[in-house]
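Handout, section B. The chain below has 44 residues.
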Amino acid sequence: MNSKIDTALTIQISGPISNNLDNYCGVYKRGMNELKSLLDKYNG
């Protein structure tokens, strides 16, 4: 794993939201957790 903080967040999902709502929610929640973790590292 890279020792530098990786600021790139790649989200890959396809299909209409109405058919994949659980997947989109999961990706969103994971992204928010990753963002929180990154901001916590920056803010010490």
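Note. DSSP finds one helix and no strands in the chain. Compare this with the example in section A.
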